[in-house]
Amino acid sequence: MMKIRVWLLAGLITLVYVACSKKGKNENLKLWYNQPAKQWVEALPVGNGRLGAMVYGDPCHEIIQLNENTFWAGSPNRNDNPESKDALAEIRDLVFEGKYQEAQDLVNEKMISKLSHGSAYQTIGNLKLNFKGNDSIDEYYRELDLDRAIVSSCYMSNGVNYKTEVFASNPDQVIVVQIRADKKQSLNFSLAMDRPSNYNITTTENDELIMNGISNDFEGVKGEVKFQTIVKIVNSGGEISRSDSTLNIAGADVSTIYISTATNFVNYKDISGDEKGKSTSYLQAALEKSYNQIKNDHIKDYQEYFNRVSLDLGVTDSINNPTDVRLVDFAKGNDPQLVALYFQFGRYLLISSSRQGGQPANLQGIWNDHLIPTWDSKYTVNINTEMNYWPSEVTNLSEMNEPLVKMMQELAMTGKQTAQDMYGARGWVLHHNTDIWRINGPVDGAFWGMWPMGGAWLSQHLFEKYLYNGDIEYLKDVYPILKEATRFFLDVLVEEPNHHWMVVCPSVSPENAPYSDHGAAISAGTTMDNQLLFDLFTKTMKAANILDLDKDFVEEVKIVLKKLAPMQIGKWGQLQEWMYDWDNPEDHHRHVSHLYGMFPSNQISPYSTPELFSAVKTSLLSRGDESTGWSMGWKVNLWARLLDGDHALKLITDQLTPSIQPDGKQKGGTYPNLFDAHPPFQIDGNFGCTSGIAEMLMQSHDGVIHLLPALPSSWKNGEIKGLKARGGFNVDIQWENGIVKLATIYSKLGGNCRIRVPNQVRLGNGNELIVASGKNSNPYYEKYDIKEPIISESVQSSELELSQTFVCDIPTNAGETYTLISE
Questions:
Q1: Residues in domain Glycosyl hydrolase family 95 catalytic (predicted)?
Q2: CA 346, CA 532: separation in Å to the nearest integer?
């Protein structure tokens, strides 16, 4: 049995730490541990957007679990239910007659797919390295270096120091493993591969281990995605021998392993690619370069994105503890740097799981070790997929949402047939779930799947991307998607009989039901539906006006927009979830769909809609804090928008609690490797909290850039650099004792920049400093002469108990930087 002797004293750990990696200014950007992973949720992730791996760091029996983001069960297919169109009128009549259960039964019979309910994202398999003679291990240490996107481990065995590095290169499209020893001829190990199903292993005279396989059949759809993985080993010293299914290394000084994987996937309707040719091509190109070249190119490529944002919340002695220990201790309240690490880990995961030209991050990003993961690791678009991309713009990773935009372009194509066949409507529609084959029909059952708003929600990301970047050519490219999503709802909205509002019917408030009145989810005019349509219609109209297009269409949309059901405040002061006042104050459901209007939308504000703002707070307090990981992530953002940083931090603290209990059972929280625990692992919780931390420090949704809007009382001093704000601004903030000491605004596009700050500031413009003073009652953006004084308005609302803030306007020129300095 392997014996690992762990060095627990901080000074001794430092010696091992230096052996594994070079100390430097980014030393705090590391997840580190003093034992190897025993299970998948302790392993450390690497990824290049297309390829992913989970690295266990076991010095005796290493496992590197592999994924490729196009390897899904099944093959191209559709799942529309054509019986839907003829049943719609009867279903709507039942809903408006209050016969909700009968309507739900009919939806299950006539609208839910009778074909595929979506395919499963599948593991490629495992690369296994079995080391000889490592039965006694000293000085063990492993880490994930977020600064360089490299997983490494090191240890001593029989007087020899060993070090392993693993990374996934985007420029070279391979995963690379290098193993070193500080004494010659000390590397002795074998390589093998396996996976749970459908594979064949061979070896070649070129020191290659090759695994070929095919995806599984799924829900009646034949599995036809083929893959090939080539593992190539290049040694310095030693000998390589082989059997039919293993490579054996004896007496090497350094071993470098190249892992190349590809599939026959071309796009959602074409799997005619050559997986063998692609995997061979990737490998051969990588072998033209040295290990150091590949590694340096990988680091340079990754840091182009990662280094855009830095966060400093202060460092305590907790930094000297391993990450899993810090997770256990976090609730004690003396480790703000763990929040910064968790924030940057979310950014690392997005860079590693969603790169240009690839697939969007799915329910687990790209990391999955099963053939049939929980919820198939699909794209659940009633919250989870959207949450994956909440950090993309604000944390300066705009390029990472390109795969989401591409998927929307494809869904808009496949969704046209769904709209026509199921609703007799123009435009395109997506329900609550999709997969790599871009299915659009409702799945899983009426309670979950009869929600035709997936396209409406995803469409928000298209216009939001424009608001951050101001790219007119991009807006021209995506405008047809917005227009056709809007056109669908113009065709399917119906008038409800009581108030004569135009509503979506049938639909649901995602995954919830008004149990105080009845137990069926099927309804009409749910609050979230109305909020989504308000955003879809207004953003489509804005896009059309910016592009000077479709004036008659815009007028048509305006007419319907005025007929949408409004948000309503219910009998106990809550924001109603449904069109009727059915909310139960004892409902602690994980979904808070009706609060979409607060976040991620901007329809509710403390300054412009204080009554609705208060109603959101009442609803959120009633729902409570205890929930699944992704739900806690959403609530962090909501409490940030409610300007309550202490409550937002309380949710982060709830999230940063160990999921794995001493008895081995799991609960919501965080796994040892900082993956979000639903449980099981869902990556949206990580992304939701990263977004929420950014929202606590800077918001730009309410017509202003609000600095430190929800700063917790315990984060007295800190600094964040590189956040992006709507309007094309980059923002740096340095604060002391809870107020802005220094802020820097870079304007990419020019134009007026309105700032809200917790304390008075003055503007430094070159050598000229202009004190913010006076009063401004004009709530709209205006153009100011650059020489005019900056105008500041003190704003305070005693009713909402909001702290005093100051508002100032900065007229900016494109490409220039402006500095705010505290008085």
A1: 290-697
A2: 26
The predicted-structure confidence for 63-77, as pLDDT tens digits, reads as follows 999 999 999 999 999
Separation between Cα atoms, residue 667 and residue 629, nearest integer Å: 9
Q: Which of 565, 590, 586 is nearest to 574 (CA)?
A: 586
Strand-by-strand arrangement of the 761-765 sheet: 310-312, 718-725, 729-736, 739-747, 816-822, 761-765, 768-771
3 band by pLDDT with thresholds 50, 70 and 90: very low
Q: Give the H/E segment covering residue 538.
A: helix 527-547
Residue 578 — φ and ψ, nearest 5°? -120, 170
* Contacts (Cβ under 8 Å, ≥6 apart) of 165: 150, 151, 152, 176, 177, 178, 295
116: nearest Cα among 450, 451, 441, 454:
441
Measured distance CA(815)–CA(746) in Å, rounded: 7
Whether the bond into 59 is cis, omega within 30 of 0: no
The C-alpha atoms of residue 437 and residue 268 are separated, in whole angstroms, by 5
CB 227 within 8 A of CB 262: yes
Kindly state the helix (H) or strand (E) to which residue 694 belongs, with its residue range. Answer: helix 684-697
Between strands 174-181 and 676-677, the pairing is: unpaired
Q: Which of the 8 DSSP states describes residue 306?
A: H
Give the pair of three-digit tokens for residue 783.
């153009």
Q: CA nearest 815: which of 734, 759, 745? A: 745
Query: If DSSP codes are grouped into helix, strand and coil, which group holds residue 616?
Result: helix
As a whole number of angstroms, the distance between CA 429 and CA 80 comes to 11
3-state secondary structure of 516: coil
DSSP labels for 326-350? HHHHGGGS--HHHHHHHHHHHHHHH
Burial bucket for residue 814 (CB in 10 Å: 0-12, 13-18, 19+): exposed
For each of the domains in the chain, give its residue range(s) and CATH number, in order of start.
3-73+120-306 (2.70.98.50), 706-822 (2.60.40.1180)
Q: What is the 3-state secondary structure (H, E, C) of 433-487?
A: EECCCCCCCCCCCHHHHCCCCHHHHHHHHHHHHHHHHCCHHHHHHHHHHHHHHHH
d(CA 515, CA 796): 40
Average pLDDT, the chain: 91
Q: Is 607 left (phi over 0), alpha (psi -120 to 50) or beta?
A: alpha
| Residue 266: how many other CB atoms lie within 10 Å | 12
- Let me know: does 595 contact 526? Beta carbons within 8 Å: no
Task: Indicate the range of 97-101, 703-707, 779-783, 795-799 predicted with least confidence.
Answer: 779-783
Give the Å distances, CA to CA, from 807 to 83, 164, 757, 781, 796.
56, 53, 6, 12, 11
d(CA 79, CA 438): 10
Main-chain phi, psi angles of 501, to 5 degrees? -75, 155
Q: How many residues does the chain have?
A: 823
Give 380's strand partners.
Answer: 433
Structure-token match 């594979």, residue found = 199
Report the distance separating Cα 63 and Cα 359, nearest Å. Answer: 25
